[in-house]
Amino acid sequence: MSLQDLIGVTWGFRNPQKEEDKLQKGGTEYEDWRLNFAFKQFHVKLNYARFKGFFIEDSREVNPSWNEGDPFYQKPELISQNIGVNFTWIINPDDFSLVAAYDQTERQEKSGGSFLIGAAASETLFEDQDQIIPTNVQGPFGQHQHITEGRFQSFTVKAGYGYTFVLAKKYFAALSGQFGFGRQYMKIKGTDFSDSTWAPAKKGDLIVSLGYNGDDYYSGLFASGDQTDYKTGEMEIAVNQWMVRAYFGFRL
Predict the structure, then answer these.
(1) Residues 45-63, mean pLDDT to the nearest whole number
(2) From 145, 163, 199, 237, which residue has the greatest number of CB atoms within 10 Å?
(3) How high is the mean pLDDT of the chain?
(4) Residue 238 pLDDT > 80, yes or no?
(5) Can you tell me the distance from the alpha carbon of 71 to that of 52, in angstroms, rounded to the nearest whole number?
(6) What tens digit of pLDDT does each residue of 8-51 get?
(7) 204 exposure class (CB count in 10 Å sphere: 0-12, 13-18, 19+)
(8) Hey, how many other C-beta atoms are within 10 angstroms of the C-beta on 162?
(9) Which of 155, 167, 158 is nearest to 115 (CA)?
């Protein structure tokens, strides 16, 4: 195995936000780092994401006088931060290549699949200088309606299946998914309370990949996403991280 079989480099960029969008939805500051280490039998994903500045899409729920075309209800000081590690073990690596689906440093030349098992750990933070939930919709959220900060630490175990369909050894379409359960430690604060407890957590992962994986170049579409669900009292919080990319590359 050579060094070029182990290393792949991907670079991405974001589209600039239009002035009209800034007026309608406000601005968002963010960092989003993702590191993937794909090997024949296992895969490790590390991620760090931090976002500041949000808007509420259904603003009429918060402000009944809101009309289509008005600026959305905005939370410019609301911060969301997530750091996590995700591990997947491939039961039958000779039948299914997660490396080929992720970064094309390997080629799967015949159709096949494998069961997958794994584990994930993450910490998620929500924080605002003001109350996170707008005042006129706080009622249904009970004792936690005045929340200003929430920190959730979770560990989940998961299982699933992955399969790649291959045509003419170089064209492929891959799909894999995992789902699991675990525990979370929750610590939340508000203007009039502070609380901490243990609660259940759920997690799901999905990967979709298709394209051409040739001897000299490769191209295709790749999408991955994972979601971790937290529940505390009357609140349910879902943290989604999705990535979609179109790519074209040459082999060195």
Answers:
(1) 89
(2) 145
(3) 86
(4) no
(5) 18
(6) 555 566 667 777 888 888 888 888 888 888 888 999 999 999 99
(7) middle
(8) 24
(9) 158
Closest CA to 165 of 206, 117, 109: 109
Q: Give kind and range of the element (H or E) at residue 22.
A: helix 19-25
Distance CA 147, CA 208 (A): 37
Largest CA distance in the chain: 64
Nearest-angstrom CA–CA distance, 8 and 217? 13
- The ranges assigned to domains in the chain are 3-9+33-60+74-250
**φ, ψ for residue 4, nearest 5 deg:** -70, -15
For the 3-9+33-60+74-250 domain, the top CATH level (class) is mainly beta
| 211 beta partners | 172, 220
What is the value of pTM for the model shown?
0.82
